[in-house]
Amino acid sequence: MNLKSLLARPFAQVTHNRIRKSAEQAVADQQNIFKQLIRVGSKTLFGKDHDFQSIKSYSDFQAKVPIRDYEQLKSYIELIKQGQHNVLWKGKPIYFAKTSGTTSGVKYIPITKDSIPNHIHTARNALFCYMAQSGNYDFAKGKMIFLSGSPVLERVGDIPTGRLSGIVNHHIPRYLRSNQLPSFETNCIEDWESKLDKIVEETIHRDMSLISGIPPWMQMYFDRLIEKSGKKVGDLFPNFSVMVQGGVNFEPYKAKLYESIGRHVDCIELFPASEGFFAFQDSQSEPGLLLNTNSGIFFEFIPIEELESEHPKRLMLSEVELNKNYALIINSNAGLWGYNIGDTVKFISLKPYKILVTGRTKHFISAFGEHVIGEEVEAAMTKAASEEGVRLVEFTVAPFVSQNQGKSYHEWFVEFESAPKNMDSFALKVDQNLREKNVYYDDLIKGNILEPLKITEIRTHGFIDYMKSIGKLGGQNKVPRLSNHRQIADGLTPFKK
């Protein structure tokens, strides 16, 4: 055990014990954060516009502060970009995290002096919890790679601005810098494929012990390593023992990633976003992600069926129930108020509060009233693939609305690494799995309103080529699992097998 591994041991134990204790008082911590946010927020423009001075309770807050998305908060962001202070939070942000929007194009998410520890410390806490639980401290002496966006920052309204992963790169502790790969120069390469080639060149002969990134981009890295070396990743890196992933549901990628590695490595799942670091896997033996209840964020939860209503029911942490889908709403010391981040979660434990990320609020299919969500299509596909021994690369789902020629159906665009022997039989199995998950979809099939789903096979590297064609290859970009429109489906048409 080298010095870094040795020093990590007491810090890991202390951190793990602190997090366990904090998890036991999550509701009290949330109440304290709420009060602190209102106290500081009352001195801001937003707080004055929403009469924070008169807020004495959560019900007062609900009455004063509506649920917003970025579009509805944008006017305040513009004031910050113009140089105004004390707009959403005290002072002005130290960064803008630049991320892709929907209708607005680019979004500029504020990160403040008070909120940056949420991003940095949570990632550290996840690793320390893993160390304390597993007893694996040795990976700290090896090389670690964080597949991330460029750390090069521009200035917007005189505020340093860039991808969250690039911003975080500037805050990696000094003691980890000597372990970190790739080099800063390589990380600055914007073109993903060029960057990937350089990353492979810099890491292929190094002692990699931890690899981190979004699963589809980790898979591209693994594919290149195997192509260059002729070895499984686990053979190429004998001391590789920890894989850190997040950003998308791991299950559809899991089998292929582990097949590429060729042996077991421990996996840590994270739930970060530009708006905050919300949860992380704190145990290798228990499912779910521990909600980050004491890190500057006051959480609210809206039952997914009420999200589109004029006055949706808003719940505090103490009011949530098990196994129900909620839209995740945050109020934070970054100055985000009643902010709908666009993710849905469900609780699988209330002691402690543990969640699964189930999808996106805007990523669903309800073209025929079925409201199929990401969790359901992923479960349906994963189960069928496992039973049939099929390996997937990527997939997405869109509605096909018939124009008076036959019935409508769900169209699944799938890139296989190993395709099923009988595609029609496999499609029926996926369809049956989805019917078992979603009663409304089942009713539409039973009522002969919809035909069973159809699979359109995408050629090898088709999804990569599609992402390249729309300028979103690499980094934190990912293909939505499903859409209520045909935009992605039409974009994939040139890449059919």
Secondary-structure map with pairings?
Layout: H1 3-24, H2 26-41, H3 45-49, H4 58-64, H5 70-81, E1 95-100, E2 106-111, H6 116-134, E3 143-146, E4 154-156, E5 159-162, H7 164-169, H8 174-177, E6 180-181, H9 184-187, H10 192-203, E7 208-213, H11 215-229, H12 233-236, E8 242-246, H13 251-261, E9 266-273, E10 276-280, E11 289-291, E12 297-303, E13 325-332, E14 339-350, E15 353-360, E16 364-365, E17 372-373, H14 374-388, E18 391-400, E19 409-418, H15 423-437, H16 439-446, E20 454-457, H17 462-469, H18 487-492
Parallel strand pairs: 1-5, 3-6, 3-7, 7-8, 8-9, 19-20
Antiparallel strand pairs: 1-2, 4-5, 9-10, 10-11, 11-15, 12-13, 13-14, 14-15, 16-17, 18-19
Write a short abstract of this structure.
This protein has 497 residues and is of the alpha/beta class. It has helices at residues 3-24, 26-41, 45-49, 58-64, 70-81, 116-134, 164-169, 174-177, 184-187, 192-203, 215-229, 233-236, 251-261, 374-388, 423-437, 439-446, 462-469, 487-492; strands at residues 95-100, 106-111, 143-146, 154-156, 159-162, 180-181, 208-213, 242-246, 266-273, 276-280, 289-291, 297-303, 325-332, 339-350, 353-360, 364-365, 372-373, 391-400, 409-418, 454-457. It has two domains: 1-360, Rossmann fold (3-Layer(aba) Sandwich), CATH 3.40.50; 364-495, 2-Layer Sandwich (GMP Synthetase, Chain A, domain 3), CATH 3.30.300.
